[in-house]
Amino acid sequence: MAGGGEANVANRVFTFEEADRSPEESLTVSIPEVLEPQYGMYVWPCAVVLAQYLWTQREQLRGRAVLELGAGVALPGVVAARCGSKVILSDLAEAPSCLENCRRSCRANGVQDVVVLGLTWGDLSPDLVLLPKLDIILGSDVFYDPEDFEDVFFSVAFLLRKNPKAQFWTTYQERSADWSVDELLRRWNLSCANIPLDSFGADKPDLARSALPGRHHIRMTVVTLGRAEEGTS
Q1: How many helices (H) and strands (E) are present in the chain, helices listed first?
Q2: What is the DSSP letter of 113?
Q3: What pLDDT digit, counting tens, does each position of 160-219 carry?
Q4: Which of 7, 19, 162, 217 has the most Cβ atoms closer than 10 angstroms to its Cβ?
Q5: In terms of Cα–Cα distance, which of 152, 54, 41 is closest to 99?
Q6: Rounded distance, CA 72 to CA 103, Å?
Q7: With 90 as the cut, is the pLDDT of residue 7 above it?
Q8: What is the three-class DSSP state of 229?
Q9: Residue 230, class by beta-carbon neighbours within 10 Å (0-12 exposed, 13-18 middle, 19+ buried)?
Q10: Nearest-angstrom CA–CA distance, 194 and 182
Q11: Are 225 and 76 within 8 A, CB to CB?
């Protein structure tokens, strides 16, 4: 992406629809991927699963304030914006190329009035503290490197305490049986409800007319503040 040009960009198209709905009721999103081997430059399998969930929840997304953490190419955030949400896209403050990816995806889909911010997990920055009221926080595959888990939960817990009625919708790929977020959930007084993939049509290797998520084992969860004592898990 030398000089900020577009030479290494290729568009990947996703069309979200439901089998029991009219074929006219669908959403097509074009996501520019930068052909470089960096985390935030292309669509990950978890992003398609989360975007599918957003599509099925589109009626409750209208007018909601949504923040996507670690957005990368921002497929879920763009889908939320296309469904009528007021969206803020964020990625690492130290990764300007990822922030440009967010802007590029917005331009490719005619999405306007989306704010793009550099937010680093675990950093209590002014931009994090001054975020407006949020209803939904999104994160696809933010639980990739166990070294980052604590920082992710720091940011999520801070935002949920600031917005007690908000929810954190996240998808993650189970890459190892040796790690778990259960202890971190308890430490930060958060509870987690698993959403079965078959409940929103994501229990298959291809979604949105794409070859993703493939055969990866992906989980969809909704994280909320507190309530751990009520038995939600």
Answers
A1: 7, 9
A2: S
A3: 999 999 999 999 988 776 677 788 899 999 999 999 999 999 999 999 999 999 999 999
A4: 162
A5: 41
A6: 10
A7: no
A8: helix
A9: exposed
A10: 12
A11: no
The Cα 97–Cα 17 span in angstroms is: 31
Q: What distance in Å separates the CA atoms of residue 207 and residue 29, rounded to the nearest whole number?
A: 13
Contact between residue 169 and residue 25 where contact means Cβ atoms under 8 Å apart: no
Q: What is the pLDDT of residues 99-150, one digit of tens each?
A: 998 999 999 999 999 999 999 999 999 999 999 999 999 999 998 888 889 9
Count of the separate structural domains present in the chain: 1
Contact in structure between 151 and 119 (CB atoms under 8 Å): no
108 part of a folded domain: yes
**Residue 147 belongs to domain spanning:** 42-225
Q: What is the pTM of this model?
A: 0.91
- Does residue 167 contact residue 222 with C-beta atoms inside 8 Å? yes
Residue 95: inside a domain: yes
Residue 25 in any domain: the answer is no
Structure tokens at 176: 């190892």
| Token pair for 38 | 């960096």
Is the pLDDT assigned to residue 4 strictly greater than 50?
no
Written as six digits, the tokens of 26 are 């669908």
For the packed helices 96-108 and 75-82, what is the interaxial angle rounded to 10 degrees? Answer: 40
pLDDT in tens, 24-67: 689 999 999 987 656 668 899 999 999 999 999 999 999 999 99
First-to-last CA distance in the chain? 43
Q: What are phi and psi of 103, to 5 degrees?
A: -65, -40
- How many C-beta atoms lie closer than 10 Å to residue 152's C-beta? 22
